[in-house]
Input
Amino acid sequence: MLLLDKLQQIGFPRKTAIIYGYLVYNGEIKESDLRNTSFIFKESLKEKKKRLKELEKRGYTRFIKRDEETIYLPMDSQELVNNLEKDIKKIDKAIIRLDQYQSEDNLAKALRYYQLTEKAIQTYLELLKNNNSISKAVRKLKTKESSIYYQIKQLQERGLVIIRKGANKAYKTKIKILSPAELIKNLQSKKAGLLDIKKFLIDKFNDGQEAKEIYGEGVPQIKTYVGVEQIKKLFDEMLAWDGEILSIDPKEGTQKFIPRWNGEFIPKFNKRGKEIRYIEYCDKLYEAGEELVLDFCPVFKGRFLPEKFSPQQETALYNGNVVYLSFAVINGYKVPCATKTNHRSLYNTLRADFEFKWDLALTLKTSTRTRHDHCSLDKRLISTSKQF
Output
């Protein structure tokens, strides 16, 4: 199932669907991100905020304030599932009323599903009765033509009318009000889309077919995490561990194993109070061996090594577990993923390798402090190797 297709099936404009998909897979959007007109796709800040407002109104997103900045978040999966179930029940009621309506009053009640004003409902009923005649609707409702066109625009936004613009002034714009039978067909399609999205949320972000555990007697356990909510569960597991956590961040890594898109975990790791050592790789020789302490997260203690040593995979080690972090492209979106294993010999090997490189970085520190210039990396490594 392509999430983007299903969101459009239930009535979201394509760009609004793209923004929601980005939120689902990446966890948050900062207002400062939106100021970049090329963020996600090219569009003004005003238009992107308007799309996020529409998502919030329909119960798909929420926002919080963090450091005086607005942060947009996807609605909690279970809450969104509950909202979808309510919407599906409303669709079922509307379909029954549309299918069995015997009077305008019954039809008007069915149309309230679309959250229309009374004027818009009356405009729909008159146009339906009078074969899309705007002049007759104007006379019957005793209003101006401009008012009728305004109501038609509201009906169009909710999928109750089709507007075909004329090729030039000689050809007038034509409108076609959808009949109750056509509305039923559209609602059934929307219901199918909502059911697919509900299944998507349950499968991928709750108990998860994407969070699989593979067990076997005498065999290491493996667990995979796909998407923001599953990665959060992984962080919670790390937080529950009372011992040391080690992190290896390659030159082309996915960011720290606490990604910057998930700032809520920085305070949690600070509160935990246990030191987290990490090794980062740099392309500047004079940084090699330097130590780094992050003001916003003092429990992090880092050291630099030259990028020549950089591994391909971002890794975290804790409580006998090895965690590999990366991104995968799913449904066209770049999605954070992780694989965790308690393979004992792999953990011991990577732990020993980490300690070796941690000490190596400290050894390099003396030469890089005094020789930013331009002593070759090979000479420095030769000098280092003699000390071991």
Q: What stands out?
A: The longest strand covers residues 297-306.
